[in-house]
Amino acid sequence: MPRLCLFVLLFFFLACPLAAEEAKPPVSEPVYPGLAEIVPRASMVTEDAGRAAAKIAEVADTSSFDAQLKDARQRQDELFQRIAALGPLEGWNVDRLLEFRGLVTEQRLAIKKLLDVVSARISEVDGIRREWNRKWDFWTGWEESLQGQQLKIPKESFREARREIDGILKKTAILAAPLVALQKEVTSLQEKNLDLLERIDGNLKILRQEIFKKTAPSFGNPEYYRQYGEDLWKAVKNGVAEVQHVRPDFLSSQGWVAILQGVVALALVGFILVKRRQAAESKEWEFITLHPWATGVFVAVSAFSAFYTNPPTLWRLLLWIFAALSAAVLISGLLKNPRKILMVRLLAFLFVLSLALKIVALPQPLYRLYLVLLCLAGIPLLLVMAKRNLAAHKGKSDGFTLALRCGAMILGGSLLAQFGGYSNLAARIFESSINSVFLGLFAAMAIRLGRGGIDYLISLALLRGRRFFRRHGSEFADRLKGAFQVFVIAYALLYLLEVWGIYDTVGQAWTDLLDLGFTLGGTFVSVQMVLMAGLVFYLSVVFSWLLSAFLDTNIFPAKGYDRGVRDAIKKLLHYALLLLGFLLAMSLAGVELKTFAFLAGALGIGIGFGLQDVVNNFVSGIILLFERPIKVGDLVVLDTEWGTVRKIGLRSTVIETLDQSEIIVPNSMLISEKVTNWTLSTKMARVVIPVGVAYGSDVTLVLGILSEVGNAHPDATQDPPPSPIFTRFGESSLDFELRVWIADISSRLRVTSELNQEIDRRFREAGVEIPFPQRDLHLRSVDPAVLVRSSPSPLEGGVEETSE
Question: Which of 78, 67, 64, 66 is nearest to 106 (CA)?
Fold first, then answer.
């Protein structure tokens, strides 16, 4: 019984949780110095106070802020005045809203920068205040500690220290008030700016949502004609006046871009004029030599216009005019069909005209009237041109005819939308179609000029003089041209989203595209991660090629490695870099490297079920690279098929036969089966020429002729020397062989043919006969009728007949 009670008691204590309070961390009491430190530390407080006062005076100087705040307030007031002069935001078109949103955003960034500087100064003052509050607490506690020890202390030193500390604290309190007031004023400007930005974004959103809505009275509605009044013409004047407005600081802050464009354009013009005669030899670049000014302007505007930040509308219009006209001139130089040339020039004119009307924000009634007149004139023109082009091609429709008909259909759709009152839809169809066509032309011209520029750079004597560019220049240029073409096409596709109003800017489209993604196994995989992974893997491939090319041109020739060793090193480096790039790409894509352990397990299962041949070929490929029983360039015989090894991969090997066909051989066959390699250790080979002479021929003469023929051939080696051999007595001839060693197996067939020809010639000169094969036929019984037809004499005994 006592044992049972003890067991129950023990079980109770073990089962009940022990509520043990967590021990509070001991509060460490500050340790104060002794009497000997009072005077030195007091003097240090005085020195620190002097430095703090100087810092406070520096922070208190807000003259620069006042000027910046005044400038920001003035800019914002001017911006609001310009907006008020142009009427309510609800009546603006998309281009004007986007233009002013850029200006408002630029102003917001300037205000934010000013606010950040003011906030940083307030934080700096607050840091000084906290530091000197700690000093106050320290000196107060130090004095109380010494008084508690009943020691005689120098009170004057403590009073002096507290006086210095109190002075600094008062200065920080005084300084904080104007800085906070300045911060509030800047914040007020920022709030007004954000409010205007939200209104602009709201109107942009409404315009996008109203694309497929009826937003204006139809042409049959009298309400449309009532819009033509004084307010309409006033709006036109305001729009023209707004276009002429150029910010005073634009040229001072961004004029360097215009200067750079002018310098580049003039430099290209001079370069083309100097190289005109050389480039004129190629018809591909004739359009550039004929239009140097258009080329220089197009390249300068296209390449450097992106450096502008919110350029004025007039400047933006001028840039587009230069770009469109120069592109039209260059494209016309590439075309031979006069109807295509006319269409390109008309498109350029309409593009510039429509852009100018949009920039001046032509009121909606007038812009609708412009589109209707344009559609009424354009539809019959396009149909007539399509009909003439079809007749010129004898009734066969081509791409240009189809494009003309599609253009007529687009104008017809825009016309119907305008008559129905769907003003936004009609304008979007017309404007986006023209802009899309010109975007395609710009992209095509940029790609053509870029490819030509790359070819010219690679062909420079400075680069061609280097071994790398002599050997790999063409491939390197192809890779650069491919990358440039991908960049231009990707940018054009993103810009196409802006053209059709899906996004406001290319940057916004790019940002939203990168944010797209999906969830895979609890991990969010974005487009940005996938693109980064693809870019890293592609760069690893390019770097692998560059490294292999560099080794081929600079390292291997100096070291004297044979081709097999070079190929083995290059392939191992290639696959190692690809593996490294793949792992890094997967890491950037959000795939943890530890998950590859599961992939390895899955791979093991796959090998066990159905990947034995793949793995066998892979391992055999590694053996071929290291052991090198065959090398690239070796002459081999596989299943009675002669061929040259052209490529050794990790899975298969490519063998080119003598008739130029290619055999793909799994690597496991080259390891497990019999392969004859004629050039494994040496290219020397023996040519054996069998020859038979008639019975009764002079054997010594035959051997002498064969020896002379072998020694006389230039490709026959003398070590070992040619050897004629009497091999046997044949059925109808004395059989000989001429065995000749040659230095290169690749000339085996040619040497065999030449030796046979020479032996035949010498035998004819010496009278040595090469017999036909002979056979004896013994006839035991013959039909008498056959005997009568074949011969008049009776057949006695056997008949001997010689046949070939």
Answer: 78
* Assigned fold of 685-766: Alpha-Beta Plaits (3.30.70)
Q: Copy the structure tokens of residue 689.
A: 């020429």
As a three-state string, the secondary structure of 515-580 is: HCEEEECCEEEEHHHHHHHHHHHHHHHHHHHHHHHHHHHHHHHHHCCCHHHHHHHHHHHHHHHHHH
Residues 6+ apart with CB under 8 A from 114: 65, 68, 69, 72, 186
- Cβ neighbours for 309, distance < 8 A, ≥ 6 positions apart: 106, 254
Q: Between the CA of residue 83 and those of 87, 104, 239, what are the distances in Å?
A: 7, 11, 11
* CA distances (Å), origin 3, targets 14, 286, 624: 16, 113, 80
Which of 640 and 440 is assigned the larger pLDDT?
A: 440
Residue spans of the domains in the chain: they are 35-209, 272-458, 509-627, 685-766
Fold of 509-627: Helix Hairpins (1.10.287)
Say how far apart CA 541 and CA 469 lie, in whole Å.
19
Which residues, at least 6 apart from 314, have a Cβ–Cβ distance to it below 8 Å?
243, 244, 245, 246
The stretch 202-210 carries a mean pLDDT of: 83
Task: Take residue 438 and report the two structure tokens written for it.
Answer: 């010109």
Residue 98's closest CA among 668, 677, 508, 557?
Answer: 508
Claim: this prediction has a pTM higher than 0.85:
no
Residue 261's nearest CA partner among 216, 296, 225 is: 296
* Residues sharing a CB contact under 8 Å with residue 240, sequence separation 6 or more, in sequence order: 360
Cβ-contact 200, 206 below 8 angstroms: no
Helix (H) or strand (E) holding 664: strand 662-666
The length of the chain in residues reads: 804
In 86-154, which residue ranges form alpha helices assigned H by DSSP? 94-148
What pLDDT, on a 0 to 100 scale, did the predictor assign at position 2?
A: 40
What's the pLDDT at 22?
Answer: 42
**Beta-carbon contacts of residue 670 (< 8 Å; ≥ 6 apart):** 620, 624, 629, 630, 638, 653
Instruction: Kindly give the interhelix angle for 527-550 and 563-588, rounded to the nearest 10 degrees.
Output: 160
Residue 98 is encoded by which pair of tokens? Answer: 């986007």
Contact (Cβ atoms closer than 8 angstroms) between residue 645 and residue 653: yes
Please tell me the predicted confidence (pLDDT) of residue 787. Answer: 56
C-alpha–C-alpha distance, residues 258 and 308, integer Å: 9
Distance CA(724)–CA(700), nearest Å, equals 11
**Looking at residue 782, what is its pLDDT?**
64
- The band of 597, judged by pLDDT with boundaries at 50, 70 and 90, is low
